[in-house]
Amino acid sequence: MRILVTGGAGFIGSNFVIENARRPGVNITVLDALTYAGSPASLSSVSDQVSLVVGDIADARLVHDLVSKCDAVVHFAAESHNDNSLADPSPFVQTNIVGTYTLLEAVRAYGVRYHHVSTDEVFGDLELDDPAKFTEHTAYNPSSPYSSTKAASDMLVRAWARSFGVRATLSNCSNNYGPYQHIEKFIPRQITNILTGVRPKLYGAGRNVRDWIHVDDHNSAVWRILDSGEIGRTYLIGADGELDNLSVIRMILELMGRDPHDFDHVTDRAGHDLRYAIDSSTLRDELGWHPRYTNFREGLQATIDWYRDNHGWWENDKDAVEARYQAQGA
Ligand code: NAD
Ligand code: TDX
């Protein structure tokens, strides 16, 4: 199977490529624009097995050429950071909506199988004490420019599947953690803050809850859906990992041998979603998927070790990322 992986030099995409590049009978081409969030270094361990095409998913001619030569597209590429979408929504509209449209037109033209990687943020947020979790039937109610452009892209996929018979599946996953995540994101930002002598930064009071899943578990679910998912269906991916941000920041400090109170409260995010929680029982019951990382503390420790052992992967970006946050009071 020839698979085109968009965004394969980003966090989740590179982990997906590393995990699947050596599967017998699988041949992977990565299409990635190498924005600030993409790095060829993330693919160095599989550079002999994988071709990297540097280009934009909204470049129709390039996309048609690549899609015409593959059997399936797994679409990870996106502008993915909420804070950036509040500072400038325009690349989010362009990549997440126009880019997805461009891919859909190409898979429609060549009859290619398509898997769309999306987020639980399309459902908006939940109250802290709400017993309900997000399911496949939850109405869309996105809050940020990021999540609204992801919601729009999901809608395009559903329409192209229904109206044009595109062989598509969708997945909406909760917050990922693990190696190769950009240091603008919550967990790697705090780990690399501690490693560089900067105090960790917590938005507001830290009551906001995220449902953490290890990136390898997200990707094993994506593979399962690509292989055995029902065409036209949406699957929710989650590993029952709900924790508030205050608990996570304290756990990082503790695992790194610091005082768990040694962090700063900074300006809260505008429109900050309160809580996400995924019910992944359909995926578990129908496709037999289960997460491997069921102990968040152990997965977090392994992630801390990875950032400690791979300074070269992130240290050149650190000052610029923190300067940008400081300018925003965050
Ligand atoms: P990321 O920002 O780390 O990586 C995105 C990649 O896409 C980068 O390599 C970047 O260079 C590439 N890219 C951006 N614009 C492009 C364009 N126009 N053309 C080609 N390539 C482009 O993101 P991530 O965290 O790995 O997220 C991957 C996907 O998973 C996204 O669709 C995101 O919405 C979704 N998702 C992420 C999470 C999470 O917790 N990180 C959770 C659920 C879903
Ligand atoms: O320094 C910080 N301090 C802080 O308290 C940062 C960067 C974040 N936060 C908070 C905001 C969120 O409540 O931590 C939580 C997680 O923040 P992010 O890592 O920015 O993730 P989030 O906004 O929840 O979105 C992530 O999960 C869903 C991904 O970035 C999205 O791409 C994915 O769709």
Provide a compact summary of the structure:
With 330 residues, this protein is of the alpha/beta class. The chain is built from eleven helices and 13 strands.
Q: In total, how many beta strands?
A: 13
Examine the secondary-structure arrangement and name the CATH architecture of the largest domain. 3-Layer(aba) Sandwich
Helix/strand-derived category reads alpha/beta
Provide the residue-averaged pLDDT.
98
- How many domains comprise the coordinates? 2
Strand order in the sheet with the most strands: 3-2-1-4-5-6-11
- CATH superfamily heading of the largest domain: NAD(P)-binding Rossmann-like Domain
Write down the CATH class of the largest domain. Answer: Alpha Beta
Percent of residues in beta strands: 15-25%
What does the model show?
By secondary structure, this protein is an alpha/beta fold. The chain has two domains: 201 residues, NAD(P)-binding Rossmann-like Domain (Rossmann fold, 3-Layer(aba) Sandwich); 87 residues, UDP-galactose 4-epimerase, domain 1 (Alpha-Beta Complex), CATH 3.90.25.10. 42% of the residues lie in helices and 16% in strands. It has eleven helices and 13 strands. The strands form four sheets. The protein has a seven-stranded parallel sheet with strand order 3-2-1-4-5-6-11, sandwiched between helices. Strands 7-10 form a two-stranded parallel sheet. The radius of gyration is 19 Å and the shape is globular. The N and C termini lie far apart (45 Å). Nicotinamide-adenine-dinucleotide (NAD) binds next to α1, α4 and β5.
